[in-house]
């Protein structure tokens, strides 16, 4: 060990220690800020407007694309403040804007009345980076909204804040509102949340699939029209890329996690990293996994020992569903192959430890699915459902393999598991292709560039409006 350490520089050692610390104590420290959303996740890159202008140039070391936001006043309105995808994404935007010298004010619309440790630490993280935090209601909130160059509403539900707080001033603020939407589930389509949507300056949505869904649903269900809509895919944070590209760190993390799971170095690990819930499809994944073992046995294939890892266990929350999963594991005698890991924000150690990411989100799939681009950064192939944002990230046959959602997907996924278990070369090649795709379009700088072009248009619209 001492010998290995010689080649490390001080900063490598420092962050690696931090990572291990986070990993071992699993606290709520947001070091690698990464969301753990529900249906619509974390994301960007690829701003495409209604008119389908694809901006696919590679941006290298150019001036920060957000520089024009310097000294602009931006009000960010978050529906809530928690360690879930939506708020963490908005915080990332807050820090991007602060880094170019914008004045950033943050409002959390819904806060619990009792003291909350997570909110406290997230607010302090923001204050440390020069973000001003205001109460959701009151004259100061109204004045800031009126003065701001731009207001970003985060999630559809944040629409509740507009009338409740701005009251008769609402019409002065709407022309400078950019509405960032990450949801793709029916119960968000309520007029009370989104009635102002048609007259805001723009909507920013995480994937084309989700944007289409919103366009259709608002028209069919609510009889309203979407404003100018921009699709902005997410990008990987610098911190994540730093770990993903450090082979020494990855090796250490891999050994550490594998040891903690009792898994040998040559074993193959297939993992879902998502909160345990029916929508994320852990039940169907386990069925596929079981079926793949049977296929291997029936065909007498020579493969390493396979494991399934489910990162995102929470016995306090989804107990019924998780009990079902655990019962399945016991019934099928898979205890030595299936591993449940508690929900965590520090996904890097697991990405370093596994061999294949399974993205098995059901129904309309992920809104984007940030874990998918994170896994690809770690050179992992992805076995994903052909739904939602996954279809915009994973290139079927090249960076991973897609299977249908629902029960029809169980056997195809089982076969894909066998395919990647038996073809080492193919698995590694897919991982490399995935990594190249991330470098080409799913980096933080791509996301910043995409967001910048949206903000520029929204600013122009706001300026040309007589009210603001
Ligand atoms: C639009 O919505 C209708 C019903 O709400 C549905 O039948 C149709 O398939 C949807 N179209 C798209 C492209 O999603
Ligand atoms: C996982 O979470 C459960 C409760 O939800 C807890 O009892 C258990 O100790 C946790 N395991 C680890 C390894 O932290
Ligand atoms: C993915 O590609 C495979 C062949 O490589 C094909 O059989 C399968 O139908 C494709 N799936 C989707 C969802 O396009």
Automatic annotation (TrEMBL):
InterPro entries: Glyco_trans_1, Glyco_trans_4_5. The chain crosses the membrane at residues 15-33. SUPFAM superfamilies: UDP-Glycosyltransferase/glycogen phosphorylase. It holds the Pfam family Glyco_trans_4_5. Residues 257-436 form the Glycosyl transferase family domain. Keywords: Glycosyltransferase, Membrane, Transferase, Transmembrane, Transmembrane helix. Gene3D superfamilies: Glycogen Phosphorylase B. GO terms for molecular function: glycosyltransferase activity. This is Glycosyl transferase.
């Amino acid at each position: 060990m001492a010998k290995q350490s010689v080649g490390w520089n001080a900063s490598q050692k420092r962050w690696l220690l931090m990572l291990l610390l986070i990993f071992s104590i699993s606290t709520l420290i947001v070091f690698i800020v990464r969301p753990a959303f529900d249906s619509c996740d974390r994301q960007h890159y690829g701003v495409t407007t209604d008119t389908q202008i694809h901006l696919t140039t590679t941006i290298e070391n150019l001036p920060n694309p957000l520089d024009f936001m310097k000294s602009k006043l931006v009000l960010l309105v978050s529906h809530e403040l928690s360690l879930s995808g939506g708020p963490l994404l908005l915080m990332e935007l807050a820090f991007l804007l602060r880094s170019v010298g914008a004045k950033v004010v943050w409002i959390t619309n819904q806060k619990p009345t009792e003291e909350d440790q997570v909110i406290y630490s997230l607010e302090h993280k923001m204050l440390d980076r020069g973000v001003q935090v205001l109460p959701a209601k009151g004259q100061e909130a109204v004045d800031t909204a009126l003065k701001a160059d731009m207001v970003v509403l985060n999630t559809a539900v944040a629409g509740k804040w507009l009338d409740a707080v701005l009251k008769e001033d609402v019409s002065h603020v709407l022309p400078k509102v950019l509405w960032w939407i990450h949801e793709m589930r029916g119960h968000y389509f309520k007029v009370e949340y989104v009635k102002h949507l048609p007259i805001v300056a723009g909507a920013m949505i995480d994937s084309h699939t989700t944007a289409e869904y919103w366009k259709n649903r608002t028209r069919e269900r609510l009889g309203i029209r979407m404003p100018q809509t921009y699709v902005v895919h997410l990008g990987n944070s610098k911190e994540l890329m730093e770990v993903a590209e450090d082979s020494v760190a990855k090796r250490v993390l891999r050994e550490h996690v594998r040891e903690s799971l009792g898994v040998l170095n040559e074993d193959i690990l297939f993992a879902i990293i998502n909160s345990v819930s029916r929508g994320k499809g852990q039940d169907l994944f386990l069925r596929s996994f079981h079926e793949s073992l049977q296929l291997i046995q029936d065909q007498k294939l020579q493969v390493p020992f396979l494991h399934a890892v489910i990162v995102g266990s929470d016995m306090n929350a989804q107990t019924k569903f998780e009990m079902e999963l655990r019962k399945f594991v016991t019934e099928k005698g898979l205890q030595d192959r299936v591993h449940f890991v508690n929900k965590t924000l520090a996904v890097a150690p697991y990405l370093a430890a596994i061999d294949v990411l399974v993205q098995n989100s059901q129904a309309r799939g992920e809104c984007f699915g940030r874990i998918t681009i994170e896994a690809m950064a770690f050179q992992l192939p992805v076995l994903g459902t052909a739904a939602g944002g996954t279809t915009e990230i994973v290139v079927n046959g090249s960076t991973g393999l897609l299977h249908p959602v629902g029960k029809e997907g169980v056997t195809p996924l089982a076969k894909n598991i066998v395919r990647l278990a038996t073809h080492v070369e193919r698995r590694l090649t897919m991982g490399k292709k995935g990594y190249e795709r991330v470098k080409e379009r799913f980096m933080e700088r791509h996301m910043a560039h995409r967001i910048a072009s949206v903000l520029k248009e929204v600013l122009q619209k706001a300026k040309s409006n007589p009210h603001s």
